[in-house]
Amino acid sequence: MDQPLPIVRHLDHLLIEAEDPSTLFRLFSEGFGLPVAWEFGDYGERVSGSVWAGNVNLEFARFKELRFGHVAVWDEVDAGRARIGGLAFEPTMPVFEVAGLLGGLDLHPGAGHTSENWTSLEVKELLDPPGVVYLTEYAFDAEAWRAGLREAFLASGGGALGFEGVQEVHVGLRDVNEATPAWASLLQGLPVYEGTAWGVAERGALRLIPWGKDEVASLMLRVRSVEAAAAFLESAGMPAHESLDGVFLEASLVQGLHLQLVDGESPAFWEFA
Known about the structure:
It is built from five helices and 18 strands. By secondary structure, it is of the alpha+beta class. It folds into two domains: 8-146, Roll (2,3-Dihydroxybiphenyl 1,2-Dioxygenase, domain 1); 158-272, 2,3-Dihydroxybiphenyl 1,2-Dioxygenase, domain 1. An eight-stranded mixed beta sheet has the order 2-3-4-1-7-10-9-8. Strands 12-13-14-11-15-18-17-16 form an eight-stranded mixed beta sheet. Strand 8 (108-114) and strand 9 (118-124) form a beta hairpin. The longest helix is centred in the middle third of the chain and has 15 residues, at 142-156. It is globular. The model has no long low-confidence stretch (mean pLDDT 91).
């Protein structure tokens, strides 16, 4: 039997949207000391800034008029709250070639967008609106860019919290069993781990979990020492709450996001594979 043709290489970045994204950007860049991937500013369709979290970029953004081909509307229910609104993957081939393959995988191509620096293609119906999954193809040497970010990250020591990287992205789904084939088609060719998870170890994993709606539910961020990270947060007046595996950042600190810090001193899931 032929091996499935990989569509995506790895998770590229997480699109974190907020009414006030600049505050989140400053928290992660200045407060936590993570290297800046691009400075916060006006980039036409959105205001945006990004940091390198050790293996994945975190983009903090707010769209102005159009968002992936639709009018950008911030639901009143979500007023004052941030959301992980998008998962961006790097494709293994030009996005126009991917678009031709998606139909055969029971996946649905959506809006495409080309800018000076990248071309993107939405993969529809994997998340409830406004959640988006899309592919990003860069028009420059992305590997050289990331190499510079990795060097800056090492020099920073992972910032004040001792970040090592994004360990898991938890995608919440109403029906994991029903949704799994579509996600498996998109992520085909990537290593598969126990508990409905795919990923490249050094770039973290995407895990499907039961949830009340189809959306990105939470992030698991790996730090060298949860104890040291919690001590820094306490000294900086940034409360955290103990969890089964580590600590959760106080939701009010990160505009309602669910962000868990787990201990780098414990084996990661891929070390059991």
